[in-house]
């Protein structure tokens, strides 16, 4: 039995079709004017392996994009309190897939609703059939995303399961920008790659059906879910994906413009002790420097 880890309420709507990835210009959005909060950096270091693999300049850009995202998207808790770690991890999930696209924003997202755990199709957090961990909304939920806080945090705690619910949902948003949630992200994929991508999706989904694949079985649900599932795999276990599915890795690398094999994402997240040297290289102990906040 395949458990639903993501759901899209599909109602036909007209969407503004954005230009290709190298020409994306969206409406004017607020940009950060303050320094990156001290309290947020340890959250990134201790939870986001992708961030730790970046050089100093790239880390500064990642931090800027985190702030920019949070200035333009409201996060609301339902039956739960939105903590700083939740804000930072949600923003990191948004930034990771589009990190190499300098002008990228999510024009189809304005609000994220955070539930404490899984929920059902009636958006109930208690009772039966609560198998949904993330959802991108349409219709009256247009512009909103719903996430389970438990799934959000687990996606960054477990480094070996090839799963990250929040990244999964942001990939759905990217897919949705051309007006169709179909696993063929026109904003990332040039026309000459469309047929090879469709053929490869069909082949890999057949392998899932035949139970000869290590790809999450939920990826066999449809092409949209396949794209999001293998994107999770790409960002969570890139070296393994490149080894087991080289063609798939190459096409995803082309789409996201990221060589994830080159990021050395095999190392563990970094734990910061209060008596360790501060990560900001001040020469002081963490507890007397950035750990004072």
Describe the structure.
The chain is α/β, with parallel strands linked by helices and 293 residues long. It has helices at 40-47, 49-52, 56-72, 84-95, 149-157, 165-176, 191-209, 223-236, 238-244, 246-256; strands at 7-8, 74-77, 111-115, 134-136, 144-148. It contains ten helices and five strands. Strands 1-4-5-3-2 form a five-stranded mixed sheet. A hairpin with a 7-residue loop joins strand 4 (134-136) and strand 5 (144-148). Helix 1 (40-47) crosses helix 4 (84-95), helix 6 packs across helix 8 and helix 9 packs across helix 10. The longest helix has 19 residues, at 191-209. The N and C termini lie far apart (46 Å). The model is unreliable at 1-27 (pLDDT under 50). InterPro entries: MetalloPept_cat_dom_sf, MtfA_fam, MtfA_N, SEC_C_motif. This is MtfA peptidase. It holds the Pfam family Peptidase_M90.
- SSE order: EHHHEHEEEHHHHHH
- Write down the oligomeric state: single chain
Identify low-pLDDT runs. Answer: 1-27
Q: Sheet bearing the most strands, described?
A: 5 strands, mixed
Strand content: 5-15%
Distance between the termini: 46 Å
Count helical runs. Answer: 10
Secondary structure: helix percent: 25-40%
Strands of the largest sheet, in order across it? 1-4-5-3-2
Q: Report the principal-axis shape.
A: globular
Structural class: alpha/beta
Q: How much is the average pLDDT?
A: 85
How many strands appear in the DSSP assignment?
5
Radius of gyration: 19 Å
Task: Provide the fold topology.
Elements (H helix, E strand, L loop, with lengths): L6 E2 L31 H8 L1 H4 L3 H17 L1 E4 L6 H12 L15 E5 L18 E3 L7 E5 H9 L7 H12 L14 H19 L13 H14 L1 H7 L1 H11 L37
Parallel strand pairs: 1-4, 2-3, 3-5
Antiparallel strand pairs: 4-5
Helix pairs in contact: 1-4, 3-4, 6-8, 8-9, 9-10
């Amino acid at each position: 039995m395949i458990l639903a880890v993501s759901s899209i309420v599909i109602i036909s709507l007209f969407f503004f079709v954005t230009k290709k990835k190298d020409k994306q210009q969206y409406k004017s959005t607020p940009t950060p004017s303050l320094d990156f909060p001290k309290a947020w950096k340890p959250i990134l270091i201790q939870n986001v392996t992708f961030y730790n693999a970046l050089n100093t300049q790239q880390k500064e850009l990642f931090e800027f994009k985190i702030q920019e995202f949070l200035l333009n998207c409201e996060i609301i808790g339902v039956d739960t309190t939105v903590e700083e770690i939740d804000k930072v991890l949600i923003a990191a999930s948004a930034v990771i897939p589009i990190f190499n696209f300098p002008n990228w924003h999510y024009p189809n997202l304005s609000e994220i609703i955070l539930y404490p755990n899984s929920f059902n199709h009636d958006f109930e957090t208690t009772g039966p059939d609560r198998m949904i961990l993330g959802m991108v909304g349409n219709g009256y939920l247009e512009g909103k995303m719903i996430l389970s806080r438990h799934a959000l945090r687990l996606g960054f705690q477990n480094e070996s399961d090839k799963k990250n619910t929040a990244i999964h949902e942001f990939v759905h948003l990217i897919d949705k920008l051309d007006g169709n949630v179909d696993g063929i992200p026109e904003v990332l994929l040039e026309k000459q790659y469309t047929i090879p991508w469709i053929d490869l999706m069909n082949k890999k989904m057949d392998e899932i059906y035949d139970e000869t694949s290590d790809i999450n079985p939920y990826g066999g649900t449809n092409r949209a879910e396949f794209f999001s599932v293998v994107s999770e795999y790409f960002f969570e276990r890139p070296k393994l994906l490149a080894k087991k599915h080289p063609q798939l890795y190459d096409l995803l690398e082309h789409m996201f413009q990221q060589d994830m094999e080159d990021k050395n994402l095999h190392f563990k997240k970094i734990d910061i002790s209060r008596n360790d040297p501060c990560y900001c290289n001040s020469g002081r102990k963490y507890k007397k420097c950035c750990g004072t906040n």
